[in-house]
Write a structure and sequence with these properties.
Elements (H helix, E strand, L loop, with lengths): L1 H17 L9 E5 L5 E3 L15 E3 L5 E3 L6 H10 L5 E5 L2 H9 L12 H7 L4 E2 L8 H4 L10 E4 L3 E6 L2 H23 L8 H14 L5
Parallel strand pairs: 6-7
Antiparallel strand pairs: 1-2, 1-5, 2-3, 3-4, 5-8, 7-8
Helix pairs in contact: 1-6, 3-6, 4-7
Length: 215
């Protein structure tokens, strides 16, 4: 089981790199192993080149047992400690999603209430207040959004998704950038228009029935 999870982590690195959701050594991914330890991508290694032997292992308390885990591990550990069902955490740098937080610092969530599939597949996508990379604030700033939200934009920094599998977490980042791109293009055509309130309410009910997973 542990080997399969570690290979899923490496596959996630390749998917994010191939999808242009991170560059060079940007971003970080982790999985919770059956023994309770966390396996995480190493600091300073390009995601397209990460190998099994590069992965770091640490405890939920942050004790490093092997390797050189990402300096942004505080947000991974905050999620694992706060959300028992979290089995994978992915942080990447989707360009258009980040651009929204740069151009519209007033936004508290991505304005996706005109896209039914987003509401059904992900619910709301909040924008987490900025934290200096590598600080403990990267973890504490997330706490008000947990466990209600699995997919988030980190203001001026990137995207973050946790899931019950690596596939869910990586898929969340892929969906985030697609949605952000659609909304950006809509803005250039005159602005995205929200759905009527009655339809939004109906979609929210359907989302609640689907459950919290990112699909």
């Amino acid at each position: 089981m542990s080997d399969a999870l570690l290979h899923d982590l490496l596959d996630g690195c390749r998917r994010l790199h191939a999808g242009c959701l991170l560059a060079a050594s940007d971003g970080n991914l982790s999985v919770r192993l059956p023994n309770g330890l966390i396996a995480m991508t190493p600091s300073g290694v390009p995601k397209a080149k990460v190998k099994l032997g590069d992965l770091a292992h640490l405890t939920l308390d942050g004790e490093i047992l092997s390797g050189r885990p990402s300096s942004e591990r505080a947000m991974h550990l905050a999620i694992y400690r706060a959300v028992p069902e979290a089995k994978a955490v992915v942080h990447a740098h989707p360009p258009t999603a980040i651009a929204w937080s740069l151009a519209r610092p007033d936004l508290e969530e991505l304005p996706s209430d005109g896209l039914p599939e987003v509401i059904l597949a992900a619910g709301r996508i909040p924008i987490v207040p900025m934290a200096i990379p590598g600080t403990e604030a990267m973890g504490t700033n997330l706490l008000p959004f947990l466990p209600a939200h699995r997919l988030m934009i980190l203001a001026r920094h990137g995207g973050l998704c946790w899931g019950e599998s690596m596939d869910e977490a990586v898929g969340g980042l892929e969906r985030l950038e697609q949605v952000a791109t659609i909304l950006w293009k809509a803005e250039t055509l005159g602005g995205a228009k929200p759905l009527p309130a009655s339809e939004l309410a109906e979609l929210r009910v359907l989302r609640a029935k689907i459950g919290p997973r990112i699909i």
